[in-house]
Amino acid sequence: KAKKKENMKVKNGLIMKNKGKFTTRKCKKMNIPFIYISRMIKEKKLEKIDRGIYISNDGDLDDYYFFQNKYKKSIYSYQSALYLHKITDRIPYKIEVTMYKGYNPHSMKKNDIEIHFVDKKYFYLGLTEVETAYGNKVRVYDKERTICDLIKHRNDIDEEIFRKAIYMYLACNDKNLSNLYEYANIMKIQKKLDDLMVLANG
Predict the structure, then answer these.
(1) How far is the C-alpha of 146 from the C-alpha of 77, rounded, in Å?
(2) In sequence order, which residues have a C-beta less than 8 Å from that of residue 185 and are 6 or more positions away?
(3) At what angle do helices 143-152 and 159-170 cross, to 10 degrees?
(4) Backbone Cα Rg of the chain
């Protein structure tokens, strides 16, 4: 009985270890029977926040991490990417992600999610990882790809958000203008970028 109790304690510790969040997938990987999660929910140590995703009492509800944990192919883009890269002063009211054409987003369709679609040849261009405010890694387009997306679809972007993003990006110490021009060339928006840079530096 004492061994069983100790075993339970060890497994609880493993479940609680991961910054207060846990998934059934991780449970299987660690060979922890689902019964341990059920017990912890009963004891109010864990709370189910979505299918197969749980959070502890002292865990952080990191929307960006949990959304991407559910939709693993999604890449944060546009205003969500601006926010994650800290090149906007606005907190987005919705999550924006990019998917490749042909992906069926039926389960993703909600009022607070906007999905952009691109050809597969552009899907991985500028893909990187950043940490959310809670220290969890998520997939996002880098600053340069994000700026190129804004330029390409400028007519759909709020003008104030657009201008602020350009100036905040140009003020970044870690900006990569070489990549910016490379992406612009691949995305066929080099002329638009050139015109914008003349104005921004004028």
Answers:
(1) 6
(2) none
(3) 150
(4) 21
Contacts 24+ apart (CB under 8 A), 122-128: 122/186, 122/187, 123/75, 123/98, 123/99, 125/183, 125/186, 125/187, 126/179, 126/183, 127/75
- Which stretches of the chain score pLDDT less than 50? 1-10
Spell out the residues 6+ positions from residue 131 whose beta carbon is closer than 8 angstroms to its own. 137, 138
Residues belonging to the chain: 202
Q: Supply the pLDDT for residue 45.
A: 72
Distance CA 15, CA 27 (A): 8
Would you list the DSSP string of 46-100?
A: EEEEETTEEEETT----HHHHHHHHSTT-EE-HHHHHHHTT--SS--SSEEEEEE
| pTM given for the model | 0.78
